[in-house]
Amino acid sequence: MTRAGVFGTDGMKRMAGAVAALFIVLATASVSGEALAIDKLEKGVPEAVTDIWAIARGGQLYDKWWAVMEADAPKTTHPAYPAAGKQKGAATWRCKECHGWDYKGKDGAYGKGSHFTGIKGISGATGLDANKLHDVIMDKTHGYTGTTIPHSAMEKLVLFIGRGQVDMDKYIDRQTKKARGNPSRGGALFQTVCAICHGFDGKTINFGDDKEPEYVGTVASENPWEALHKIRNGQPGVPMIALAALGDQDHVDILAYAQTLPQK
Q: What's the predicted TM-score (pTM) here?
């Protein structure tokens, strides 16, 4: 599935309005105690980087790092991608492609189906030393270099892996895919923030095409783990708001409401 979205002038205006709506919330996030490096190759970075922004940025890098970096997509299949896997090309370079939207890899939603690789998730890396995480990501298996992803961006990916994950099984029923949230409360959040861009019915932006449309309600119901990840961290390469500054239950309530929206 793709999440490109074509916004146009009106869509961009809605994006700007949404950013303004959350300015007060985001402004309360504390500035990081550790000074995160800012590399000239990393675009769209605030002067005073907060932990919460850096974690969300790392979540976007986990999703699709080259979209965040405004770089060209990889042209080959990742050399460490399992031969038994069914994906190929640039998709195999996405962290989520092997480790999953729920961060559980072969033990989660990607335990079967077209995204199965047999690779374990990253959930066990929560709380690990940042330097150790950095060394793992930069090892020969993962194949990343400072040229591929600049050091300052790698810091944020490490920050997300170590501190930005949530246990999705706590918030999403794996069998039914239903979010364990309050849709009434989530509706208030969605209608005052998300609807500025997505519309009250979640259908203003079509992530698919005319033949196979895909809307907020579609993703929320069919792949709630992806939806929750993006609610928290935003969408790479487009000005979607990351709601990481809100609480986990806020995110889950929004997901619960999004699951009530039209899928087609």
A: 0.84
Please state, in angstroms and rounded to a whole number, the distance separating the CA atoms of residues 60 and 47: 19
For residue 237, the model assigns a pLDDT of: 93
Percent of the chain with pLDDT over 70: 83
Q: Is the pLDDT of residue 114 over 90?
A: yes
Residues of the chain with CATH 1.10.760: 8-26+170-258
Distances (CA, A) of 22 to 17, 132, 159: 9, 34, 23
**CB proximity list for 145: less than 8 A, separation 6 or greater:** 138
C-alpha to C-alpha distance for 237 and 69, rounded to whole angstroms: 8
Q: How far apart are CA 38 and CA 186, in angstroms?
A: 35
Residues contacting 200, CB < 8 A, separation 6+: 191
Indicate the residue type of 97: E
Average pLDDT over residues 23-35: 37
* Residue count (the chain): 264
Q: What is the architecture, at CATH level 2, of domain 8-26+170-258?
A: Orthogonal Bundle (1.10)
N-term to C-term CA, the chain:
15
pLDDT in tens, 134-156: 999 999 999 888 888 989 999 99
Burial (0-12, 13-18, 19+ Cβ within 10 Å), 172: buried
Reading the block at residue 188, the tokens are 């208030």
* 191-228 per-position pLDDT tens digit: 999 999 999 999 999 999 999 999 999 999 999 999 99
Q: Which amino acid is at 231?
A: I
Question: Whose structure tokens read 């990253």?
Answer: 122
Which amino acid, residue 256? A
Beta-sheet strands, E only, within 85-136: none
The one-letter code for the residue type at 119 is I
